[in-house]
Amino acid sequence: MTKSNLIRWFICICILLGCTACNTEHRFVKRTEFKKSNIVVICFAGPVDESWAKNMTAFRINEQQDPDIILKIERVELSKDRCTLQIFMKDPLNKSNPHQVVLPNIMSLGKSQGTAIVSVKKLYWGNLLSILIGAMFIYNYVFVKYLGLCVYLGVTQKKSTAIGMGITFTIVIIFSTSISWVLYQFILKPFQIEFLQIIVFIGLVSLTVQAVDTILRKVNPILFKEFGVYLVLIISSCLILAVPLIMAAQDYDYMESLMLSSGAGLGFFIAMFLMSCVRERIDLAPIPESYRGMPIAFIVSGLFALSFMGFSGMTIF
Amino acid sequence: MIEKNKSYGNILVNGILNENPIFRLALSMCPAVGISTNVMNGVLMGIAVLFVQFCSSLTISLVKNYIHPRIRIPTYTLTIATWVTVTDLVLAAFFPVAYKSLGIFVRLIVVFCFITMRLDVFARKNPVFPSLVDAVGMGFGFMLGMMAIGGVREIMGMGTLMGYDILGFRPLLFFVLPCSGFFVVGFMMAIFNYTENVYNRRKRARRLA
Questions:
Q1: Which end of chain B has less neighbouring CB within 10 Å, N or C?
Q2: Model pLDDT for residues A9-57, shown as the tens digit of each residue
């Protein structure tokens, strides 16, 4: 009974998500998407006339937030069944912003289907996944953006402490970013007091850390004994403030900010784990006297950062 | 903690040399690695930090008798956050180009550990004027550290200093790469350690002789 119910719900949700992914604002335009770096693909419900499609000066493409900048079109290509139109742009598109396409007076089999104004954007789930992977690897906060170095260098002496700190940090950053998102969207933005965001976010972070501390102490003293020491250290990390600030600057929605914060936390965890593994072995290695301690740790981090540069320029979806 | 007979000169030098926030304390390394690609960034970041440290030291040493010891850390954080907001808005309004090159790091001055540490260690226990001297020393120490790293990276990477061409060629392009900040900081720390070791060894030898 419950199992079949669950399956039914699952199917409903899938259909709902599927609908949100492919519906457009015009009845004749079935689907719009980005392809490669500079192609916009538009699928029609029926075949369109070739003479209409070749008249590319009539099409208008612009980014949704600045409609006065019209992007230049290089050429258009119609597929053999005349249902799919590919518009090649002169310059690469900024795919993170939604784009608006105006198709005036669509002609299909000699009949006019009216003017279509449709928006093109990235797939929602693909976007979420790309934010998560991006925060973890491509823009790893420690090795590519150089944030949170104090904590990273301070507690990576032993593998066990590094893992404990990584887990605590991930949990705290997800909590505090969620709360910051709510406060930013529903209080700071409506009252136009965004300039107070530094004060509000740092206050929130300290509050979250204090709350997690108190709750953990009451609910699970064993866990508190394990992870309590790291909680105080977290406030002094740049990363914990940088993630809400980036979230506010990019104006993410809730799911996106959740992905960003968990990606940042996991990326930090990965960085700490890698570094602690290396540092445990460094302790046994014969290192020149003046390089012992901090200097060698910095040089090893530099090597890690060099290898993380290999991810740069990668795009997913 | 701080001896009464310490002169203002000693306090000033303490921040620049003995407790240099970058090379000796190794606190707040994020800007030292992240934006030290040239000297100008170092100077700007140093001025911003100096301003924030100066104003928050002034504030805390003025109101130190009214702060309950239990809530002192949140008080420091909020004081620093207020002054950072002021700096952030002023820089964004008057120096938009520089503000863009510093990026998010101006806002992250809030979480620089050494500012909070100076407030807790010094400004909480001392009168206004020595706290200000200490703040200036720490700020200049930070600025000089940033400038040193930025200078090495700019000369080695671009062959220029403060935007002026001084070498005429580019010795090692590697130093322009963002990740080379880690290497430069590591090597400079090692040089500091080496000088200190040699100095101590000579002193010991002289004492024995």
A1: C
A2: 777 676 666 555 444 567 777 777 777 777 888 888 888 887 777 777 7
Closest Cβ opposite residue B113 in set A150, A196, A198: A150
Q: What is the pTM of this model?
A: 0.78
Chain A CB within 8 Å of residue B81 CB: yes
B177: which chain A residues are within 8 Å (Cβ-Cβ)?
Answer: 306, 309
What are A228's two structure tokens?
């309590």
Domain residue ranges in chain A: 24-120, 124-311
Question: Is there a contact between A268 and A148 (Cβ–Cβ < 8 Å)?
Answer: yes
Residue recorded with tokens 């101006």: B106
Q: What residue segments make up the domains of chain B, in order of their start?
A: 8-208
Contacts of B39 (CB under 8 A, 6+ apart): B147, B150, B151, B154, B161, B162
Decide if A202 and B29 are in contact by the 8 Å CB cutoff.
Answer: no
Question: Which CATH architecture best describes the domain A24-120?
Answer: Sandwich (2.60)
Complex confidence, ipTM: 0.85
Residue A93 — φ and ψ, nearest 5°? -85, 150
